[in-house]
Amino acid sequence: MRNNEGKAFLKLLIVIVILFLIGFMAYKWAIGRDGIITKVTTDEKEYNQSEVLQEINVIITQKYLEAYSKATSGGENKIEQFYNADKVMLYLKGYTCDETGNINTETEPTETKYIEDLTFEENCYYVKIENFKRDITNHGKGENAENSSDYFFIKKEGEAYNLYYKNTNMEIEQIGALKIEQSI
Question: Nearest Cα to 68, choosing from 180, 179, 183?
Fold first, then answer.
């Protein structure tokens, strides 16, 4: 009788070990470093980040079309008066252009503010994700502060403007370049 109890205990122990190994493998497959859930979360994050870049570029294109309409309304093409990289940044800050191509930065902006100056760095602009027309990301909802994390920002580098993301680990990754140059 004791011999049977020992065999039953051994079988039970083997079953427990096998179930433990299966559970461990399922965990690694689903949640581990290269697990399915981790991959889906990473893919979603990268997709959301590229959507932010696309959304900003759509807004820039809309601003170009508005400027082009104003610049060609008198029968001549004065696009340089109404549209350039500096004016694009002012448009994204919520300022509008008058009929002569001038932007009055002394008054409060009247349009939606998509960016604002980054409080602690020159030639950088904090992206106000909450002001986009649609909810495109779960990321980038931090604050415009030096010790903040999880936000998007635009940085002027030479003649180019690039979109970056600073994650919760304070790591910065470049998402892509803004398409300031437009043509019809």
Answer: 183
